[in-house]
Design goal:
Length: about 260
């Protein structure tokens, strides 16, 4: 933990030294819309009014609920319920099962910048975001419900699902381009709240379903759940994953350009 803290301090100092507010400060083309000339308008600080304005745009609502169906399943499985599931399905040891969760998280971390860079290069947001959501949803369905899926096949599904989940990062740029630039911070905060709604809801709800399906088996002080209980519990995150696909499909493409008023 101490080493992590020192590393983050070093990264923060490097950010302070090298990162600028706009690419133009480093001699590159700016992506910010041109601001009107003249003295800046005096506006009162009204955060709730800004939030209301943000959600007056259709894309904001769709992109608010969409990432929960990608991040929620990932953190519910790789961060909590995946280890006992893999123990129940494949008889894995705790360390091996935890390693699978780590694999998914690493692939998620790699998929984010890859999908974001590809989106910028293509000049499109919706197709890649939707493709990531579809692959993610199909990946979860395969991992949970494919009968007789061998461990090797499960690992392939897990890696692909992790990479595809990285596409959720596109939602931040997508949402900022869907509202006037003066609300870019507000909409980014709203989307981040939508991201965290997924695991906040799914993690305890899956646990509640597992407790309802519990057959009374114990290992020391720990409850043991059978495979069918996990499949019923994980149906919640799979349902949200496919809902995410629908939500993204209903969004309007921005072509990587700032909102034009």
């Amino acid at each position: 933990m101490a080493a992590s803290g020192v590393l983050m301090l070093a990264i923060s100092m490097a950010c302070r030294r090298f990162i600028r507010d706009d690419p133009s400060e480093r001699g590159f083309r700016s992506y910010s819309p041109e601001m009107p000339k003249g003295p800046p308008a005096q506006e009162k600080f009204r955060p709730l009014a800004g939030l209301a304005t943000v959600f007056s745009f259709r894309n904001s609502w769709l992109l608010f609920w969409a990432p929960g169906g990608m991040v929620g399943p990932m953190l519910s499985f790789a961060g909590l319920w995946g280890v006992p599931f893999l123990e129940a399905r494949y008889g894995m040891g705790t360390k091996s099962a935890a390693a699978v969760g780590s694999l998914m998280m690493i692939c998620w971390a790699v998929g984010g910048p890859l999908m974001g860079a590809l989106s910028d290069r293509l000049g499109r947001r919706k197709p890649l975001y939707l493709a990531g959501a579809v692959v993610s949803a199909l990946g979860w369905a395969g991992m949970i419900f494919w009968p007789g899926l061998p461990v090797e096949g499960f690992l392939v599904f897990a890696a692909l699902t992790g990479l595809a989940t990285g596409g959720m990062i596109i939602g931040f740029a997508f949402s900022k381009e869907s509202v006037p630039s003066r609300y870019s911070g507000t909409v980014a905060g709203a989307i981040n709240m939508g991201v965290m709604i997924g695991p906040t809801f799914l993690q305890p709800t899956i646990g509640w379903v597992l407790d309802l399906m519990w057959q009374g088996q114990m290992k020391g002080d720990i409850r043991l759940y059978d495979l069918e209980a996990f499949r019923i519990g994980f149906s919640l995150m799979i349902a949200w994953s496919f809902l995410t696909c629908l939500l993204i499909a209903l969004t309007k493409e921005t072509h990587c350009r700032p909102f034009s008023e």
